[in-house]
Amino acid sequence: MPRDTLTREQIVSAAVTLLDDEGLEGLNMRALGKRLGSAATAVYWHVGSKENLIGLAADEVWHEIGLPDPDRVGWRAAATAMAGDLYAMLLRHPWLVQAFGSYVTYGPGKARHDDHSLAIYEAAGFTGARADQALAAVFTYVLGNALGPAAAAGLARRLSRDGDTADVRAQAAEVAAQFPRLRARLGTSQTYDGEAPENSFEFGLTALLDGLTPYLPT
């Protein structure tokens, strides 16, 4: 695709798909240009650099999060919905979790999320620093829950390329068997490798929001 027929929107959309498929380590302008049927130089012309492209892709996916109205559904329901949307978005795009530590990813999409989150906690009755603390507590909880799946996705890609997935899982099971509570979970639906049981995210989020309630002004 010639440079003058490409658009930044096309490039960013293709970059998100490539990042979802290959992770941060798989993103380069040559691979992206191949997907777009264009030269890498044409991609550079539109986005400037790989770092800038990752920032644009990150900002794009932040717009996937809905903005529930706390005045209509209540602050707890709105906070739960936004946290759930954020968690689902990070699971769809695990490369974003990786990017937080290496790239500047703050743009209008992230600012949109943060501003509406603050509106939710202010609607609950939090003011000033307390609203920021409530937002930070929920955000870091969601991010912490997304770290495991993001790391697992990256490891799975590497093991798939190296062809030693079964060996690694066997080694992990061998280590787990040395500890009684982990050994009891071998061969069951319960996990021994750091994965939480089903519905753990919802359980923890409910407990966290319950924990914020005593800090509301009376």
What does this structure look like?
With 218 residues, the chain is mainly alpha-helical. The protein folds into 2 domains: 3-48, Arc Repressor Mutant, subunit A, CATH 1.10.10.60; 65-215, Tetracycline Repressor, domain 2 (Orthogonal Bundle). Helix content is 70%, strand content 0%. The protein is built from 12 helices and no strands. The protein is flat, with a radius of gyration of 21 Å. The mean pLDDT is 88.
Summarize the structure.
By secondary structure, this protein is mainly alpha-helical. It has helices at residues 8-22, 29-36, 40-47, 50-62, 70-73, 75-92, 95-100, 108-124, 128-162, 165-176, 180-183, 200-212.
Structural class: mainly alpha
Indicate how many domains the architecture comprises.
2
CATH architecture of the largest domain: Orthogonal Bundle
CATH topology assignment of the largest domain: Tetracycline Repressor, domain 2
